[in-house]
Amino acid sequence: KNSNQRLNRFPGPSLARWTTLYKEYYETLYSDWVGELEKLHRQYGPIVRVGPNELHFSQLDAYGDIYAVGSKFSKDSKAYSPVETFLHLFGLLDPQEALTRRSMIQPFFSKRSVLGRQSIIQEKVDSFINELLSTYNKPNPPMDLGYSLRPFFAELIPIFCFPNLDAISALTSSGLISSIKQTPDRSTIWFLMKNLPRKVVKLLTLHETRVSPNEAKALELVADDALNSPLSEVDETNISFFQTILKRSGGNRPLVEPRLWLASEAMNLKFAGVDTTANAVFIAIRAVLGDEEILEALIGELDKAWPELGSIPLGMSALEKLPYMTAVIKEGLRLSMGVIAPMTRVVTPEDTVIGREPIPVGTIVGMSTCFVHLNPEIFPEPHTFRPERWLQEDSQKLEKYLVTFSRGPRSCVGMHFAWCMMYLLLANMFRKLKLLPTSTEDLRAPFRLKDDFVSVYEGKPVYLNVEGRRS
Ligand code: HEM
After folding, report:
1. Carries keyword Protein transport (predicted)?
2. Ligand 1 pocket, 412 CB below 6 A?
3. 3-state DSSP: the chain helix, strand, coil percent, rounded to 5?
4. Is the Cβ atom of 407 under 6 angstroms away from ligand 1?
5. Contact indicator for 175, 253 with CB cutoff of 8 Å
Protein backbone atom coordinates (compact mmCIF):
# COMPACT_ATOMS: atom_id res chain seq x y z
CA LYS A 1 0.00 0.00 0.00
CA ASN A 2 1.31 3.47 -0.71
CA SER A 3 1.01 6.02 2.08
CA ASN A 4 -2.09 7.65 0.54
CA GLN A 5 -4.01 4.38 0.72
CA ARG A 6 -2.78 3.82 4.23
CA LEU A 7 -4.57 7.04 5.20
CA ASN A 8 -7.97 5.68 4.14
CA ARG A 9 -8.83 4.77 7.72
CA PHE A 10 -8.79 8.44 8.78
CA PRO A 11 -12.05 10.37 8.44
CA GLY A 12 -12.38 13.62 6.51
CA PRO A 13 -14.32 15.30 3.72
CA SER A 14 -14.44 13.02 0.69
CA LEU A 15 -13.16 15.65 -1.72
CA ALA A 16 -10.00 16.05 0.36
CA ARG A 17 -9.15 12.36 -0.13
CA TRP A 18 -8.66 13.03 -3.80
CA THR A 19 -7.31 16.51 -4.19
CA THR A 20 -5.34 19.23 -2.45
CA LEU A 21 -7.75 21.73 -4.00
CA TYR A 22 -9.98 21.36 -0.95
CA LYS A 23 -7.37 22.97 1.28
CA GLU A 24 -6.25 25.44 -1.37
CA TYR A 25 -9.79 26.69 -1.78
CA TYR A 26 -10.04 27.71 1.87
CA GLU A 27 -6.50 29.04 2.01
CA THR A 28 -6.61 31.14 -1.09
CA LEU A 29 -10.15 32.36 -1.33
CA TYR A 30 -10.90 32.90 2.34
CA SER A 31 -7.54 33.00 4.09
CA ASP A 32 -9.38 30.95 6.66
CA TRP A 33 -8.04 27.44 6.54
CA VAL A 34 -7.91 27.42 10.34
CA GLY A 35 -11.62 28.28 10.58
CA GLU A 36 -12.41 25.37 8.28
CA LEU A 37 -10.14 23.07 10.30
CA GLU A 38 -12.13 23.90 13.44
CA LYS A 39 -15.31 22.81 11.70
CA LEU A 40 -13.69 19.65 10.35
CA HIS A 41 -12.45 18.60 13.79
CA ARG A 42 -15.89 19.16 15.29
CA GLN A 43 -17.35 16.93 12.64
CA TYR A 44 -14.68 14.23 12.24
CA GLY A 45 -12.79 14.10 15.55
CA PRO A 46 -9.17 14.65 16.61
CA ILE A 47 -7.45 13.45 13.41
CA VAL A 48 -8.79 14.61 10.05
CA ARG A 49 -7.57 13.68 6.60
CA VAL A 50 -7.39 17.10 4.96
CA GLY A 51 -5.65 16.10 1.74
CA PRO A 52 -4.76 12.95 -0.20
CA ASN A 53 -1.58 12.68 1.83
CA GLU A 54 -2.21 15.07 4.71
CA LEU A 55 -3.56 14.81 8.26
CA HIS A 56 -4.39 17.59 10.67
CA PHE A 57 -4.48 17.00 14.43
CA SER A 58 -6.35 18.83 17.17
CA GLN A 59 -5.37 17.10 20.43
CA LEU A 60 -2.73 18.48 22.73
CA ASP A 61 -0.46 15.44 22.83
CA ALA A 62 -0.22 15.47 19.03
CA TYR A 63 1.41 18.93 19.08
CA GLY A 64 4.28 17.60 21.16
CA ASP A 65 4.67 14.59 18.86
CA ILE A 66 4.86 16.66 15.66
CA TYR A 67 7.05 19.53 16.92
CA ALA A 68 9.19 17.32 19.15
CA VAL A 69 12.72 18.02 20.32
CA GLY A 70 15.05 15.96 18.14
CA SER A 71 12.38 15.41 15.48
CA LYS A 72 13.69 14.19 12.11
CA PHE A 73 10.61 15.38 10.22
CA SER A 74 11.32 17.66 7.27
CA LYS A 75 9.34 20.76 6.38
CA ASP A 76 6.59 20.08 3.84
CA SER A 77 7.91 21.15 0.44
CA LYS A 78 4.54 22.32 -0.83
CA ALA A 79 3.67 24.55 2.10
CA TYR A 80 7.14 26.07 2.15
CA SER A 81 7.63 26.20 -1.62
CA PRO A 82 7.39 30.01 -1.80
CA VAL A 83 10.66 30.15 0.14
CA GLU A 84 12.20 26.85 -0.82
CA THR A 85 14.34 28.38 -3.52
CA PHE A 86 15.53 31.13 -1.19
CA LEU A 87 18.88 30.62 0.43
CA HIS A 88 17.97 31.24 4.07
CA LEU A 89 17.48 28.96 7.05
CA PHE A 90 13.69 29.28 7.12
CA GLY A 91 13.48 27.88 3.57
CA LEU A 92 15.56 24.77 4.31
CA LEU A 93 13.44 21.64 4.34
CA ASP A 94 16.01 19.07 5.39
CA PRO A 95 16.38 18.71 9.18
CA GLN A 96 20.11 17.98 9.10
CA GLU A 97 20.91 20.96 6.91
CA ALA A 98 18.76 23.17 9.10
CA LEU A 99 20.54 21.97 12.23
CA THR A 100 23.93 22.96 10.81
CA ARG A 101 22.64 26.33 9.62
CA ARG A 102 20.95 27.08 12.92
CA SER A 103 24.22 26.54 14.75
CA MET A 104 25.64 29.49 12.76
CA ILE A 105 22.70 31.80 13.38
CA GLN A 106 21.49 30.96 16.86
CA PRO A 107 24.48 32.40 18.80
CA PHE A 108 23.62 35.90 17.59
CA PHE A 109 20.15 35.60 19.15
CA SER A 110 21.13 33.69 22.29
CA LYS A 111 19.86 35.13 25.54
CA ARG A 112 23.35 36.22 26.53
CA SER A 113 23.98 37.95 23.25
CA VAL A 114 20.62 39.73 23.34
CA LEU A 115 21.12 40.89 26.95
CA GLY A 116 24.54 42.23 26.00
CA ARG A 117 23.06 44.36 23.21
CA GLN A 118 19.83 45.49 24.81
CA SER A 119 21.03 49.10 24.93
CA ILE A 120 20.51 49.17 21.15
CA ILE A 121 16.87 48.26 21.72
CA GLN A 122 16.49 50.76 24.57
CA GLU A 123 17.84 53.60 22.43
CA LYS A 124 15.37 52.86 19.67
CA VAL A 125 12.53 52.58 22.18
CA ASP A 126 13.48 55.98 23.64
CA SER A 127 13.36 57.68 20.27
CA PHE A 128 10.06 55.97 19.44
CA ILE A 129 8.53 57.25 22.69
CA ASN A 130 9.78 60.79 22.00
CA GLU A 131 8.41 60.65 18.50
CA LEU A 132 5.01 59.55 19.80
CA LEU A 133 5.03 62.33 22.39
CA SER A 134 5.73 65.01 19.87
CA THR A 135 3.45 63.71 17.12
CA TYR A 136 0.35 62.32 18.77
CA ASN A 137 -0.29 64.59 21.74
CA LYS A 138 -3.70 66.22 21.70
CA PRO A 139 -5.08 68.07 19.76
CA ASN A 140 -3.05 66.34 17.03
CA PRO A 141 -4.84 63.47 15.29
CA PRO A 142 -4.33 60.08 16.99
CA MET A 143 -1.94 57.36 15.89
CA ASP A 144 -3.07 54.13 14.30
CA LEU A 145 -1.39 51.68 16.67
CA GLY A 146 -1.28 48.67 14.33
CA TYR A 147 0.26 50.75 11.60
CA SER A 148 2.92 52.34 13.83
CA LEU A 149 4.30 49.19 15.39
CA ARG A 150 5.39 47.47 12.18
CA PRO A 151 7.80 50.18 11.02
CA PHE A 152 9.18 50.34 14.57
CA PHE A 153 10.24 46.68 14.42
CA ALA A 154 11.22 46.91 10.75
CA GLU A 155 13.79 49.53 11.75
CA LEU A 156 14.88 48.01 15.00
CA ILE A 157 15.66 44.53 13.66
CA PRO A 158 18.35 45.67 11.16
CA ILE A 159 19.73 48.21 13.65
CA PHE A 160 20.14 45.39 16.16
CA CYS A 161 21.76 43.13 13.58
CA PHE A 162 24.17 45.67 12.13
CA PRO A 163 25.72 47.95 14.74
CA ASN A 164 27.68 49.62 11.96
CA LEU A 165 26.05 52.90 10.99
CA ASP A 166 26.91 52.71 7.30
CA ALA A 167 24.90 49.52 7.04
CA ILE A 168 21.88 51.21 8.50
CA SER A 169 21.99 54.21 6.24
CA ALA A 170 22.38 51.90 3.24
CA LEU A 171 19.34 49.96 4.36
CA THR A 172 17.26 53.04 5.03
CA SER A 173 17.99 54.57 1.67
CA SER A 174 17.28 51.25 -0.06
CA GLY A 175 13.65 51.47 0.88
CA LEU A 176 13.73 48.60 3.38
CA ILE A 177 12.09 50.72 6.02
CA SER A 178 9.52 52.43 3.86
CA SER A 179 8.52 49.25 2.06
CA ILE A 180 7.31 47.67 5.27
CA LYS A 181 5.02 50.58 6.03
CA GLN A 182 2.61 49.49 3.40
CA THR A 183 0.66 46.47 4.47
CA PRO A 184 1.52 43.76 1.98
CA ASP A 185 -1.18 41.41 0.87
CA ARG A 186 1.08 38.52 1.45
CA SER A 187 -1.52 35.80 1.52
CA THR A 188 -2.36 36.20 -2.11
CA ILE A 189 1.26 36.11 -3.18
CA TRP A 190 2.18 33.30 -0.80
CA PHE A 191 -0.72 31.03 -1.64
CA LEU A 192 -0.59 31.68 -5.35
CA MET A 193 3.07 30.79 -5.43
CA LYS A 194 2.44 27.72 -3.34
CA ASN A 195 -0.02 26.44 -5.85
CA LEU A 196 1.73 27.32 -9.10
CA PRO A 197 3.75 24.62 -10.89
CA ARG A 198 7.14 24.26 -9.21
CA LYS A 199 9.10 25.27 -12.28
CA VAL A 200 7.27 28.56 -12.53
CA VAL A 201 7.89 29.29 -8.87
CA LYS A 202 11.59 28.60 -9.31
CA LEU A 203 11.75 31.03 -12.18
CA LEU A 204 9.93 33.72 -10.26
CA THR A 205 11.85 33.45 -7.05
CA LEU A 206 15.34 32.35 -7.93
CA HIS A 207 16.34 34.33 -4.93
CA GLU A 208 14.98 37.32 -3.07
CA THR A 209 16.90 39.77 -5.19
CA ARG A 210 13.99 39.39 -7.59
CA VAL A 211 11.46 40.19 -4.90
CA SER A 212 12.97 43.36 -3.37
CA PRO A 213 15.97 44.29 -5.51
CA ASN A 214 16.89 47.51 -3.66
CA GLU A 215 16.92 45.93 -0.29
CA ALA A 216 18.89 42.97 -1.58
CA LYS A 217 21.48 45.26 -3.17
CA ALA A 218 22.01 47.19 0.06
CA LEU A 219 22.35 44.00 2.06
CA GLU A 220 24.79 42.51 -0.43
CA LEU A 221 27.03 45.54 0.08
CA VAL A 222 26.90 45.03 3.82
CA ALA A 223 27.62 41.34 3.24
CA ASP A 224 30.65 42.19 1.09
CA ASP A 225 31.99 44.27 3.93
CA ALA A 226 31.69 41.37 6.34
CA LEU A 227 33.18 38.92 3.83
CA ASN A 228 36.18 41.16 3.22
CA SER A 229 37.05 42.09 6.78
CA PRO A 230 39.27 39.71 8.74
CA LEU A 231 37.11 38.06 11.39
CA SER A 232 39.95 37.82 13.89
CA GLU A 233 39.76 41.59 14.30
CA VAL A 234 36.05 41.69 15.10
CA ASP A 235 35.27 42.88 18.60
CA GLU A 236 32.75 40.48 20.22
CA THR A 237 30.51 43.16 21.70
CA ASN A 238 30.11 44.91 18.37
CA ILE A 239 29.86 41.86 16.18
CA SER A 240 27.25 42.01 13.42
CA PHE A 241 24.79 39.34 12.36
CA PHE A 242 26.85 38.56 9.25
CA GLN A 243 30.14 38.39 11.14
CA THR A 244 28.63 36.00 13.67
CA ILE A 245 27.40 33.70 10.93
CA LEU A 246 30.74 33.74 9.14
CA LYS A 247 32.64 33.08 12.34
CA ARG A 248 30.40 30.17 13.27
CA SER A 249 30.49 28.67 9.82
CA GLY A 250 34.23 28.29 10.30
CA GLY A 251 35.03 29.01 6.67
CA ASN A 252 32.56 26.32 5.73
CA ARG A 253 30.19 28.54 3.75
CA PRO A 254 27.32 26.40 2.61
CA LEU A 255 26.60 28.14 -0.64
CA VAL A 256 28.27 29.10 -3.83
CA GLU A 257 27.36 32.73 -3.49
CA PRO A 258 28.00 33.79 0.09
CA ARG A 259 26.90 37.40 -0.40
CA LEU A 260 23.50 36.35 -1.70
CA TRP A 261 23.20 33.83 1.08
CA LEU A 262 23.94 36.40 3.78
CA ALA A 263 21.60 38.96 2.25
CA SER A 264 18.90 36.33 2.12
CA GLU A 265 19.31 35.41 5.81
CA ALA A 266 18.99 39.09 6.73
CA MET A 267 15.93 39.64 4.56
CA ASN A 268 14.24 36.69 6.15
CA LEU A 269 14.61 38.20 9.61
CA LYS A 270 12.23 40.93 8.52
CA PHE A 271 9.67 38.42 7.33
CA ALA A 272 10.08 36.36 10.50
CA GLY A 273 10.36 39.09 13.10
CA VAL A 274 8.31 42.14 12.17
CA ASP A 275 4.67 41.07 11.92
CA THR A 276 4.95 38.39 14.59
CA THR A 277 6.40 40.71 17.22
CA ALA A 278 4.21 43.67 16.23
CA ASN A 279 1.07 41.49 16.45
CA ALA A 280 1.87 40.24 19.93
CA VAL A 281 2.53 43.78 21.19
CA PHE A 282 -0.57 45.11 19.44
CA ILE A 283 -2.88 42.47 20.93
CA ALA A 284 -1.39 43.11 24.38
CA ILE A 285 -1.74 46.92 24.28
CA ARG A 286 -5.25 46.71 22.86
CA ALA A 287 -6.41 44.36 25.60
CA VAL A 288 -4.70 46.25 28.44
CA LEU A 289 -6.29 49.54 27.38
CA GLY A 290 -9.67 47.86 27.03
CA ASP A 291 -9.73 46.72 30.66
CA GLU A 292 -9.19 49.22 33.45
CA GLU A 293 -8.28 46.58 36.05
CA ILE A 294 -5.56 45.12 33.88
CA LEU A 295 -4.22 48.59 33.08
CA GLU A 296 -4.09 49.54 36.76
CA ALA A 297 -2.39 46.31 37.77
CA LEU A 298 0.24 46.71 35.07
CA ILE A 299 0.97 50.36 35.78
CA GLY A 300 0.96 49.73 39.53
CA GLU A 301 3.62 47.07 39.16
CA LEU A 302 5.73 49.18 36.80
CA ASP A 303 5.58 52.32 38.95
CA LYS A 304 6.68 50.36 41.98
CA ALA A 305 9.62 48.75 40.18
CA TRP A 306 10.58 51.97 38.39
CA PRO A 307 9.62 54.86 40.68
CA GLU A 308 11.90 57.56 39.27
CA LEU A 309 11.52 58.23 35.57
CA GLY A 310 14.82 60.06 35.49
CA SER A 311 16.69 56.96 36.68
CA ILE A 312 18.19 54.30 34.43
CA PRO A 313 15.44 52.42 32.58
CA LEU A 314 14.67 48.91 33.74
CA GLY A 315 16.64 46.31 31.81
CA MET A 316 15.50 42.93 30.62
CA SER A 317 16.69 41.09 33.76
CA ALA A 318 14.61 43.36 36.01
CA LEU A 319 11.57 43.26 33.74
CA GLU A 320 11.61 39.48 33.55
CA LYS A 321 11.06 39.41 37.29
CA LEU A 322 7.83 41.43 37.05
CA PRO A 323 5.08 38.79 37.15
CA TYR A 324 2.22 40.92 35.86
CA MET A 325 4.19 42.40 32.97
CA THR A 326 5.33 38.90 32.02
CA ALA A 327 1.77 37.59 32.17
CA VAL A 328 0.57 40.42 29.91
CA ILE A 329 3.17 39.51 27.29
CA LYS A 330 2.25 35.82 27.55
CA GLU A 331 -1.40 36.66 26.88
CA GLY A 332 -0.31 38.82 23.93
CA LEU A 333 1.67 35.89 22.56
CA ARG A 334 -1.12 33.41 23.21
CA LEU A 335 -3.83 35.40 21.48
CA SER A 336 -1.72 36.64 18.56
CA MET A 337 -0.69 33.06 17.61
CA GLY A 338 2.55 33.95 15.77
CA VAL A 339 2.28 31.64 12.78
CA ILE A 340 -1.38 30.73 12.55
CA ALA A 341 -1.22 28.30 9.60
CA PRO A 342 -0.45 24.69 10.48
CA MET A 343 3.33 24.40 10.04
CA THR A 344 3.24 21.21 8.06
CA ARG A 345 5.96 18.55 8.32
CA VAL A 346 6.60 15.27 6.53
CA VAL A 347 6.88 12.13 8.64
CA THR A 348 10.45 10.86 8.07
CA PRO A 349 12.45 8.65 8.15
CA GLU A 350 9.98 5.93 9.23
CA ASP A 351 6.43 5.30 10.46
CA THR A 352 5.76 7.03 13.74
CA VAL A 353 3.13 7.59 16.41
CA ILE A 354 1.29 10.92 16.61
CA GLY A 355 -1.52 11.49 19.07
CA ARG A 356 -1.38 7.77 19.97
CA GLU A 357 -2.08 6.71 16.36
CA PRO A 358 0.47 5.04 14.06
CA ILE A 359 1.17 7.33 11.10
CA PRO A 360 2.89 6.10 7.93
CA VAL A 361 6.18 7.55 6.72
CA GLY A 362 5.69 10.20 4.02
CA THR A 363 2.47 11.60 5.50
CA ILE A 364 2.17 15.38 5.75
CA VAL A 365 1.16 16.30 9.30
CA GLY A 366 0.40 19.58 11.03
CA MET A 367 -1.38 21.23 13.90
CA SER A 368 -2.22 24.92 14.04
CA THR A 369 -1.22 26.77 17.19
CA CYS A 370 -4.88 27.79 17.61
CA PHE A 371 -5.77 24.26 18.71
CA VAL A 372 -3.38 24.61 21.64
CA HIS A 373 -3.88 28.25 22.59
CA LEU A 374 -7.67 28.17 22.38
CA ASN A 375 -8.14 24.83 24.15
CA PRO A 376 -10.68 25.61 26.91
CA GLU A 377 -9.40 22.85 29.18
CA ILE A 378 -6.00 24.47 29.37
CA PHE A 379 -7.08 28.10 28.96
CA PRO A 380 -10.67 28.52 30.25
CA GLU A 381 -12.57 31.24 28.33
CA PRO A 382 -9.78 31.02 25.81
CA HIS A 383 -10.68 34.16 23.86
CA THR A 384 -10.45 36.36 26.95
CA PHE A 385 -7.20 38.23 27.63
CA ARG A 386 -6.58 37.34 31.24
CA PRO A 387 -3.06 37.79 32.65
CA GLU A 388 -4.24 36.27 35.95
CA ARG A 389 -4.30 32.82 34.39
CA TRP A 390 -0.49 32.91 34.41
CA LEU A 391 -0.32 34.01 38.06
CA GLN A 392 -1.99 31.10 39.86
CA GLU A 393 -0.08 28.78 42.13
CA ASP A 394 -0.18 26.00 39.57
CA SER A 395 0.37 28.20 36.48
CA GLN A 396 3.78 26.66 35.88
CA LYS A 397 1.99 23.75 34.20
CA LEU A 398 0.60 26.11 31.54
CA GLU A 399 4.05 27.02 30.24
CA LYS A 400 4.32 24.03 27.96
CA TYR A 401 1.11 25.03 26.22
CA LEU A 402 2.39 28.45 25.18
CA VAL A 403 3.73 27.51 21.76
CA THR A 404 3.74 30.84 19.91
CA PHE A 405 7.40 30.30 19.05
CA SER A 406 6.62 26.69 18.14
CA ARG A 407 8.68 23.81 19.54
CA GLY A 408 11.38 21.45 18.43
CA PRO A 409 14.26 21.74 15.99
CA ARG A 410 12.59 24.35 13.73
CA SER A 411 11.20 26.61 16.43
CA CYS A 412 11.92 30.34 16.44
CA VAL A 413 15.61 31.30 16.64
CA GLY A 414 14.69 34.92 17.42
CA MET A 415 12.73 34.15 20.58
CA HIS A 416 14.97 35.87 23.15
CA PHE A 417 15.33 38.88 20.89
CA ALA A 418 11.55 39.07 20.51
CA TRP A 419 11.00 38.80 24.29
CA CYS A 420 13.53 41.55 24.93
CA MET A 421 11.95 43.92 22.38
CA MET A 422 8.48 43.28 23.82
CA TYR A 423 9.59 43.83 27.44
CA LEU A 424 11.44 47.06 26.72
CA LEU A 425 8.82 48.53 24.44
CA LEU A 426 5.81 47.73 26.62
CA ALA A 427 7.51 48.73 29.89
CA ASN A 428 8.57 52.09 28.46
CA MET A 429 5.26 52.79 26.77
CA PHE A 430 3.17 52.11 29.87
CA ARG A 431 5.61 53.74 32.31
CA LYS A 432 6.25 56.91 30.34
CA LEU A 433 3.04 57.45 28.40
CA LYS A 434 -0.58 57.85 29.12
CA LEU A 435 -2.21 56.09 26.20
CA LEU A 436 -5.58 57.61 25.38
CA PRO A 437 -7.72 55.47 23.09
CA THR A 438 -10.30 57.39 21.05
CA SER A 439 -12.86 54.66 21.75
CA THR A 440 -12.75 52.07 24.52
CA GLU A 441 -15.64 50.21 22.98
CA ASP A 442 -13.62 49.43 19.86
CA LEU A 443 -10.94 47.90 22.06
CA ARG A 444 -13.39 45.32 23.34
CA ALA A 445 -14.97 44.45 20.01
CA PRO A 446 -14.39 40.88 18.82
CA PHE A 447 -11.75 40.42 16.12
CA ARG A 448 -10.63 37.77 13.69
CA LEU A 449 -7.14 36.58 12.87
CA LYS A 450 -6.65 36.09 9.18
CA ASP A 451 -4.36 33.29 8.06
CA ASP A 452 -1.56 34.85 6.01
CA PHE A 453 0.79 32.15 7.29
CA VAL A 454 1.53 34.58 10.13
CA SER A 455 -1.66 35.92 11.67
CA VAL A 456 -3.12 39.25 10.60
CA TYR A 457 -5.46 41.19 12.89
CA GLU A 458 -8.81 41.95 11.30
CA GLY A 459 -10.92 44.12 13.52
CA LYS A 460 -11.54 47.69 14.55
CA PRO A 461 -8.32 49.74 14.27
CA VAL A 462 -6.91 51.11 17.51
CA TYR A 463 -6.45 54.90 17.57
CA LEU A 464 -4.52 56.52 20.40
CA ASN A 465 -3.38 59.93 21.54
CA VAL A 466 -0.52 60.07 23.99
CA GLU A 467 0.48 62.24 26.92
CA GLY A 468 3.58 62.08 29.09
CA ARG A 469 3.09 60.47 32.51
CA ARG A 470 4.58 62.30 35.42
CA SER A 471 7.12 60.58 37.67
C1 HEM B 1 6.74 37.39 18.93
C2 HEM B 1 7.55 37.28 17.89
C3 HEM B 1 7.85 36.01 17.12
C4 HEM B 1 7.08 34.88 16.99
C5 HEM B 1 5.71 34.61 17.58
C6 HEM B 1 7.83 33.96 16.15
C7 HEM B 1 7.40 32.68 15.80
C8 HEM B 1 8.10 31.80 15.00
C9 HEM B 1 7.64 30.49 14.60
C10 HEM B 1 6.31 29.88 15.00
C11 HEM B 1 8.60 29.93 13.82
C12 HEM B 1 8.54 28.57 13.12
C13 HEM B 1 8.05 28.77 11.70
C14 HEM B 1 7.88 27.51 10.90
O15 HEM B 1 8.20 26.41 11.35
O16 HEM B 1 7.38 27.62 9.77
C17 HEM B 1 9.68 30.89 13.72
C18 HEM B 1 10.84 30.69 13.00
C19 HEM B 1 11.83 31.62 12.87
N20 HEM B 1 11.92 32.86 13.51
FE21 HEM B 1 10.53 33.65 14.75
N22 HEM B 1 9.01 34.55 15.79
C23 HEM B 1 9.06 35.80 16.37
C24 HEM B 1 10.09 36.72 16.27
C25 HEM B 1 11.26 36.52 15.58
C26 HEM B 1 12.33 37.47 15.49
C27 HEM B 1 12.35 38.84 16.17
C28 HEM B 1 13.30 36.92 14.70
C29 HEM B 1 14.63 37.49 14.28
C30 HEM B 1 14.84 38.74 13.99
C31 HEM B 1 12.82 35.60 14.28
C32 HEM B 1 13.50 34.73 13.46
C33 HEM B 1 13.06 33.48 13.08
C34 HEM B 1 13.77 32.62 12.14
C35 HEM B 1 15.08 32.95 11.43
C36 HEM B 1 13.00 31.45 12.01
C37 HEM B 1 13.30 30.23 11.13
C38 HEM B 1 13.86 29.09 11.95
C39 HEM B 1 14.01 27.80 11.14
O40 HEM B 1 13.47 27.71 10.05
O41 HEM B 1 14.67 26.86 11.63
N42 HEM B 1 11.58 35.40 14.85
N43 HEM B 1 9.35 32.03 14.46
Report:
1. no
2. yes
3. 55, 10, 35
4. no
5. no
